[in-house]
Amino acid sequence: MESTIDQPERRGLKKGLYLIPSLFTAANVLMGFFALMGALRGFQLVFIGTDAALAAAAVHFDEAAIAIGWAVLFDSLDGRIARMTKTTTEIGVQLDSIADVVTFGIAPTILAYAWGYGAALADGTNAHKIGWFISFMYLMCGGFRLARFNVQSTRPRILAEGTVKLDKKSFIGLPIPAAAAVIAAIIHYNPKPLVEYQESLLYSVLTMALVAALGMLMVSTIRYSSFKTAGTKRRSPRLLILAVAAMATLIWLYSRYMLLILAVGYASHGILFRLLALFRRKPEPRPITELD
Helices 19-46 & 51-85, crossing angle to 10 degrees? Predict the structure, then answer.
């Protein structure tokens, strides 16, 4: 009798667990929408041009960048929670990809455009058109990156000649949340609109080059650590907890510096490892003898 009474409660608890990853995905979308609204409002204030309006625009850009940072955290947790609770669903996977397109594809491009070259470059000029084109291509690269990841996740084998086999320890190409984090970290470090600087043209060109480079990294075959195996060993959970606690404290105290270092460091480590692999000496072939 006792087991039959407890069974419906356990089923209800199991059904409730399926909502937890979706709630984190919903929070991801909310942060992306907040970042979009902040970028649009900041862009509006930039064109007013007064000191008060520019100062208010910097606040909106900073809040939008912080929202993208929170979205990165929510995105990293929803998948882990789904795997830990064994509540992964096909709808959840597709919803997560759609959320990533909004939060890490559209939001950072609009934010970079509004904060940087969209306002600093004269409308209708070739430089402004190039900036518009680069923003669009970043979005397309991000969408392709998500599509490739979904296909490789559901079919972990070689799909065609030259396609890299899926490795759970690493990502193929820069993940789109990491690319968005680089843009958000730079704007959080300096939310002041580029139009206020005398070297606004130079900074705009550098920002466009960064957005273009991030787009190319997303569709590249450079490997990036996934950290999915972190904390799986016996001793590593304690070290992982200490590392996370220390990292969270440093981010709380020095968010502008720490987030920039973490975002740029992660985006750069894949390139660094690829360069080291290229310069690593290959073993010389053994000479063929008569005995062979």
Answer: 170
